[in-house]
Amino acid sequence: MKEIFRRMAQRPVPAMELLLATFFVTLLNLASPVFVIQVLNRYVTFGFDGTLVTLTVGMLVAVAMLYAFTLLRPRLAAVVMGDAEERLSAACHEIILRIRAQALGPEVVRAAHEVPARLATVRSAREPGIVMQVLDAPFAVLYLLVTFLLSPLLALVGALGMVAVGVLAHAGNTGQSVHFRTLEHEEAERRRMNAAAIDGADTVRVFRAAAFVRRAWTERTRRAEPLRLRLAFLREGSKSSTATVVLLQSVAVYAIGAMQVVNGDISVGVLIGANILTSRAVGVAAGFASALGLCARARTAQADLDRFLALPQEPASGTAKQSFKGRVEFRDVGFGWSGSHSPLFESLNVVMEPGMLTIVQGPNGSGKTTFARMLAGLVEPGRGDIVADGVTLRQIAPDWWRGQIRYLPQEPAFMPATIRENILMPLLGRQTAEASVSDGSPVLKVDAGSLRDGQERKDEAELNAVLNTALNAADLASYIFSLPAGLDTVLEDAGRTLSVGIRRRLALARAMVTDGRLVILDEPTEGLDAQGRKAALRCIVQMLREGRTVVVVSTDADLERVAGQKLDLGIKPRPLVARRAPAGGNGAVVAPVPYPASENGTPGPDAGTPLETVSGIGAPAQGGTPPVPPAAADRDVARQAGQIGQAGQIGQAGQIGQAGQAGQAGMGKDSTEKNSTGKAGPAKDSAGDEPVGTEEPGQGTQGETRS
How are beta strands 434-438 and 441-447 bridged, if at all? Predict the structure, then answer.
């Protein structure tokens, strides 16, 4: 109720108009008892038809005016209340979009699911009908005042009736609020169980979990059913109590009024008019008590929403460098989840350089995905700083930072939109920024409030070109063509209806549409078939050649072979950072050796294995020419690091054999030899050493290398 008067104070002009309209409605409601009194006292006594006509015409005019003001009041009430509920709904939706991922625990998720119900409760207490019931209460005194002028004793009976109705309604509303909140919680749990049974339909059937779900459902129903019956009983009891009080009040008015009529204190017309007036006063009191009950529930719901709105959210502004080169450094970073007995890691110092592949490994639960989410700006470290090109991630605008990364999460999820929209989503939500200078380096100051979504959106042709490139990189073209709706296929249920491999390929294509210099891939080859694995490896190789900083969470042996750096989160509490052996004095790359431990995690300028010098890894896309190794030493690395697949693609697993056996279209022999098509395939490399096997595009030659 305080909220209603607060909003009236904020809009004084429409509030005054609403009060005047309410006064006139109350005043016009007096026409009915006055009409009854005059008809019974004057027309019935004297029988003059002119009196009846005059009274009837006056009553019709009053009814017409009452109808007009009754229609006007809801509109004025809507103006007074404004659109605060819509703004509250928008604020809750915005907090869902911007809440820090680190705060998304089970309780917060449950609260987010209950937001619509809380909003509905708040909105129900701010409706025009409730506002009018609250404003009618003070004017009900006018009914008692008129009754007092007719008969003070009958006015006292009406006042006692109003008090009784108010007390009973308040007691009923209090009991209903307690049971209503408990029932709401039980209903929310049942909805959650339904959703879990639907999402885990295969689990329910294959593992015969129906009995467990049924027992849990029955238990929730057993708890909810008495609450529902009790709530219905309280509601009907409150209605019955109000009706009983109104009836008793009417009986008391007629009994006491009849004695006054017999004593000659009042007339019959006055008795009937007084009964009408006191009944209306009691009715207004009942409506006011009901409105108070709704307002009490709305206050509780508003308190829940206020707590939800107070959850930490990502900043709407920050700084953004005009150009990001891709260097990211962890400085003494420590992190542990709230409530855990030990941190995931402490004193983590590691530098990720452009053009370098950093592989992150460790057992399950060691914090690999948390590390990837930290790089994406989803989780903040508990201690230390993550620095991107000299700027800490805490200072950087999240929206800008997400445009500088290519991110493949471990569990990809998609919006209920088409495949085209899901893949291009990072581009469709681009925002602009305002230039400023900070710390002597050119930066952009980003303010989400002043940004226009899609202002820098690429035109349709360019978007299609980016989309085609991403689809080809993820090797999704054949799958898309097999769908009846193609790219316009709508992904439902966050894409969980798709196979794991297709979800990961779609997520890879979505990551590839941005021009981010930092690439974060969480298990990019997990759940993929041979062809999908080749596509993922080709993308990684291509991004390394483009000079991007690539961080991969994976146990893939081929990725580990070409990684310049390994981060082992399985070492507690301080993870192990290991570097690849640097190039030899003559510039040639030595064969891979075990990762040496680094003292402080800070790399030298030549740390890591340059990918371009490793034959058989990182061949160009289909239709290109495989790279020619510059020296025989490089071919030794090639024999260990993998082979070139068909038309320059990566071999299926880059397998190492004792004799260095090649994959599809692998390396040729060191002597002239025909491939399976009967065509000779020797070729001298640039150093004039052993010949390298050649092939025609599309031919699946079979060859081998000699040690």
Answer: antiparallel
**Could you tell me if 442 and 416 are in contact, meaning their C-beta atoms sit under 8 angstroms apart?**
no
Q: CA–CA separation, 225 vs 219, rounded Å?
A: 10
pLDDT in tens, 264-307: 888 888 889 889 988 888 888 888 888 887 888 888 888 888 88
The DSSP annotation for 251-286 comes to HHHHHHHHHHHHHTSS-HHHHHHHHHHHHHHHHHHH
Instruction: Give the torsion through C-alpha atoms of 568, 570, 571, 574, to 10 deg.
Output: 80
606's tokens: 């030549």
**What does the block give as tokens for 423?**
């893949």
| Number of other CB atoms surrounding residue 569 within 10 Å | 21
Q: Give the count of beta carbons closer than 10 Å to the beta carbon of residue 652.
A: 19
pLDDT exceeds 50 at position 623: no
For the residues 435-454, what does the mean pLDDT come to? 37
> Which string of b and e fits 172-185 if b means at least 16 CB within 10 Å?
bbebbbebbeebbe
At 238 the pLDDT is 78
Neighbouring C-beta atoms of residue 594, cutoff 10 Å: 8
**pLDDT tens per residue across span 197-215:** 887 777 788 888 888 888 8
Letter for the amino acid at 54? T
Q: Does residue 672 register a pLDDT over 70?
A: no
φ, ψ of residue 672 to 5 degrees: the values are: -60, 125
Tokens found for residue 441: 């380096």
Residue type, 468: N
The Cα–Cα gap between 183 and 281 comes to 34
Helix (H) or strand (E) segment spanning residue 112 = helix 106-113
The residues, any chain, with a CB within 8 Å of residue 469's CB and separated by 6 or more, are 512
CB 328 within 8 A of CB 549: yes
What digits encode the pLDDT tens for the residues 536-577? 999 999 999 999 999 999 988 888 888 889 999 988 888 999
Q: CB-based burial of residue 421 (10 Å sphere; 0-12 exposed, 13-18 middle, 19+ buried)? A: middle
Bridge-based pairing state of the strands 357-361 and 549-553? parallel
Q: Which residues pair with 565 in a beta bridge?
A: 358, 579
Q: What is the mean pLDDT of the chain?
A: 75
Q: Which two tokens stand for residue 428?
A: 């469709």
Cα 358 from Cα 350, distance rounded (Å): 10
The SS3 call for residue 374 is helix
CA 687 – CA 22 distance, rounded (Å): 98
CA-to-CA distance for 407 and 628, rounded, in angstroms?
32
- Say which residues have a Cβ less than 8 Å from residue 21's Cβ, sequence separation at least 6: 69, 72, 73, 76
* Nearest one of 296, 311, 59 to 169, comparing CA atoms: 296
8 A C-beta contact, residue 176 and residue 234: yes
One-letter identity of residue 56: T
* pLDDT, tens only, 43-91: 877 777 788 888 889 889 999 998 999 899 888 888 888 877 788 888 8
